[in-house]
Amino acid sequence: MALKNKLPIPGVVQVLNPFKVKKQRIMNFNPAEGVALRKPADNSKITVFDYNTSLCSELVLDKVEDTFKYMESSQLSWINIDGIRKEEIHAICEQFLIHPLIEEDILSIGQRAKMDEINDRMFCLLPMIYFNSETSSVDMEQVSIVLGKNFVISFQEDPTRDVFDPVRTKLLLKGSRIRNGGADYLCYSLLDVIVDNYFIVMDKLGERIEMMEDLVQHQPNTRTLARINYLRRQVFLFKRAISPVRELINGFLKSESDLLEDKVTKYYKDVYDHIIQCNDLADNYRDTVLNLQEMYHTQLNLKMNEIMKVLAVVTTLMAPPTLLAGIYGMNFHYMPELETRHGYYYTLGGMGILLLLMIFFFRKRGWF
After folding, report:
1. What is the pTM of this model?
2. Contact (Cβ atoms closer than 8 angstroms) between residue 202 and residue 238
3. Strands of the sheet with 151-156, listed across from one edge
4. Average pLDDT over residues 76-84
């Protein structure tokens, strides 16, 4: 749940609340435990786009066995499985001659982005990232893509959302480049839309960073520091997730597989350029958040210095009156001016004059 910001910052209505959000695990764990840790999806959805240059059909299938016929189809097929279930994954991998090692990677969780070529099948695994506006957090799911001669199979963890709608729209558009391309171009299109969505997430993170810059200057308190640390964690999660994707795309560029046509390589090069840019921006964001922490401590020190300056001035101004009051408060019978008729008023006047002179002197020197 997000907290409303007390500071009226234009264009920003809420800020992240690190005390209300479930912590995300950053550090690595044993990848061999991934299969055992994964819980089967409550529901799954299987969709197929079967197409050529002139025709395209979109089908929603009831069971995974209905996809088997597309292995030998004369048309190109994109099989998208939303929701990971071990039995379904095993069945489709066995039918489409997908190596057991790839099957294990698909079933695992928390995998690092990677790319493999086994038995005339190209496989890649990478994160699909979303920005949760309610919690100001970076959410991600693992996406696996298998490229064959005339098919592409994608496996998603979350059946309720993805970023593939632009690809679906282009597939239904007759004469589009994706309809005229091969399975390798379809694979490129899926990777391209995933990487492009990284920039959308980065824009959201950038907005939060700019908001925190204003917040640090006006409210340098412990809650602000907690929000900075939370934002730093989200940027770190994002950076850690996308860094290996560069190696993944580079694997396609270096591949000599017959599944990739030379004319499609330039498109993968474009995705490679995008992920390089994304990594550079993520590095900048990480440095900016670290600078926010330094700015917070600087603002805190400045605030403390202002408080100490005020206290020092007050103490200094009160020193002369305290001195005079102390002198005339001494318990001696024979003291000058004790019998002065207006001595009390003279003393108060002297205190006031000393205060005014000191204030004038301090202001002239620019001390406050």
Report:
1. 0.77
2. yes
3. 56-61, 45-51, 76-82, 151-156, 137-147, 121-132, 114-118
4. 93
Using only the alpha carbons of the chain, give its radius of gyration. Answer: 34
Matching residue, tokens 């409550």:
42
β-sheet bridge partners, residue 128: 141
97 torsion bin: left (phi>0), alpha (psi -120 to 50), beta (else): left
Instruction: With CA atoms as reference, report the closest residue to 184 among 215, 159, 152.
Output: 152
Do β-strands 151-156 and 76-82 pair in parallel, antiparallel, or remain unpaired? Answer: parallel
**Which residues pair with residue 47 across a beta bridge?**
60, 80
Helix (H, G, I), strand (E, B) or coil at 47: strand
3-state secondary structure of 243: coil
Rounded-to-integer distance, Cα 188 and Cα 253, Å: 11
At 238, give phi and psi (nearest 5°).
-65, -50
For residues 120 and 134, what is the distance between their CA atoms, to the nearest angstrom? 43
| Cβ–Cβ < 8 Å for 78, 171 | yes
Q: What pLDDT digit, counting tens, does each position of 314-347 carry?
A: 787 788 778 777 777 766 666 777 677 777 777 7
d(CA 300, CA 337): 50
Whole-angstrom CA distances from 65 to 45, 80, 103, 105 are: 13, 14, 17, 21
Q: How many CA atoms lie within 13 A of 37 on its CB side?
A: 12
pLDDT in tens, 138-192: 999 999 999 999 999 999 998 888 999 999 999 999 888 999 999 999 999 999 9
Cα–Cα distance measured from residue 144 to residue 154, given in angstroms and rounded to the nearest whole number? 6
